[in-house]
Structure prediction request, 616 residues.
Amino acid sequence: MCGIVGYVGEQSALDVVISGLRRLEYRGYDSAGVALVTADGLATDKRAGKLINLEESLDRTPLPAATTGMGHTRWATHGGPTDRNAHPHVDCTGKLAVIHNGIIENFSKLRLGLETNGHDFSSETDTESVAHLLEDAYAAAGGNLAQAMRDVCKQLVGAFTLVAVHSDSPECVVGARRNSPLVVGRGVGENFLASDVSAFISFTRNAVELGQDQVVEITRDGISVTTFDGAPAETNEYEVTWDAAAAEKGGFEHFMLKEIAEQPKAVADTLLGRVGVDGKLTLDEMRLSDEELREVDKIIVIACGTAYNAGMIAKYAIEHWTRIPVEVELASEFRYRDPIVDPQTLVIAISQSGETMDTLMALRHAREQRARVLAICNTNGSTIPRESDAVLYTHAGPEIAVASTKAFLTQIVAAYLVGLYLAQVRGNKYGDEIAAILTDLRDMPEKIERVLETMEPVRKLASTLKDKTSVLFLGRHVGFPVALEGALKLKELAYMHAEGFAAGELKHGPIALVEAGTPVFVTIPSPRGRSVVHDKVVSNVEEVRARGAYTILIAEEGDESINSAADFIIRIPACPTLMQPLLATVPLQVFACEMATVKGFDVDQPRNLAKSVTVE
Ligand code: M6R
Prediction:
């Protein structure tokens, strides 16, 4: 949503903060700003637009040197993306500045009270109220910024990460979090605050996880964490397992291209270490007992966007392997429909970031109904796994591009592991059957690599189709969520009208969209598996072709039966039906990425979006 960095140490605070903001820009990029505590007092600059606008402004008018400071990159909620609404927001004294991620729900009431008491506002944001509240609280707390933060947090309703500096407390930066991420980086003679570890990974790999409703004060040599009531709080310190290179483009033009290329490794890493010496599947982080898992009589997957599509794919596998009914629900809808959830329900929350507010709220609702919640997550220590009963981490490494790619493939793999584990514990499958499926999974990185090696024609296809106004995606069985994912990628990256449909559903209405030349991507199921599905999909291809569609078929190597129905064929290696999404999605990712490039759009930071959506 927004990216936050705070620093106190011996280096140039501006350099540290700007380098952190570059890494966090994926979280929001409609304005950016910095505040430094200099020898002459507080110095700030903030600009609408991407970070580069702020950097150019700082080049034109440099700020005085400082070793304490903070910065923000914004995804607007309250108040449009203007210079005035950009963070930091400053109090009436001009000495205190605050940056914020999240939404202060009671801000209008707070603002009214503050204005009545004589505070002047200069923006339309909810955040500015916090600056003025801190101004009063700082005075009341005798110049103790951490105490002021604690006092203010107790007055706020909503979700927030806040970071503040005050020019009369030049050696410290104070942060707070509720339902929004904030992590501490522990250095030597310097400490960091950030929305995620990528902001300080070039300086330190030692991170301190903050809990819910905690306030942190960092100085050069100390990190002190308390609850909002001021009681000392327990924290969890850990070492980040990836390095700065993982958060850089590594020679690729875009993060998305790098992340697409990393998929074989990401899938392999997610499978690593999951089988014990006895040949049985072991999920170390699975904090649910076998007994609890045997009691499960229903599974509900909750997720958003791409993670939801991964859940849709997982449904086919988990139901097939375990015979447990699986519902897949958009997290934003889940709690508002009074879902039937009880202690025998296993809720699987899938989230790359682990911070998506819709998913977090849905999982809290599930826990209130006493369901057990298992998170599938890519971000160590983030809120969703922390609030779940169990967690299975995907090991995709940092995903920076807003469009999710490697996270999607690893979410499918992780959900499959959960399905197989349930089948193992509940005795739905023999050990050798599970071992055979694990072998199929282990074959996938090499097959994904082969798909990646043959993507040049797909790139050219994007140029050929760049003037089309609408693109359709079809599939059946696990090919249906692949179609949804292909359409989502194209929408978010190339801003084109794109729809994914279940191939069999097309004739019930959407086929009216097909006109001469409409590109229609279709994932063709393996003819070796349940060939009836294969033949039905081929019939669906013929139906759209008869109406003038330009058909692009993603089909298994050796399946020549589709040749006459195809205008363009993308070949993928043969694999079992349930594994096919791990291959068929890759050309769709490449197509969308290339289409955005051809159209001259920003691949990594598409318009209107942010990587993690931490508001409902
Ligand atoms: O971090 P999460 O996996 O919870 O994010 C969920 C969605 O916001 C995310 O997948 C989004 O749809 C992607 N931008 C799609 O590429």
Summary: Residues 431-453 form the longest helix (23 residues). The chain has a mean pLDDT of 94. The radius of gyration is 25 Å.
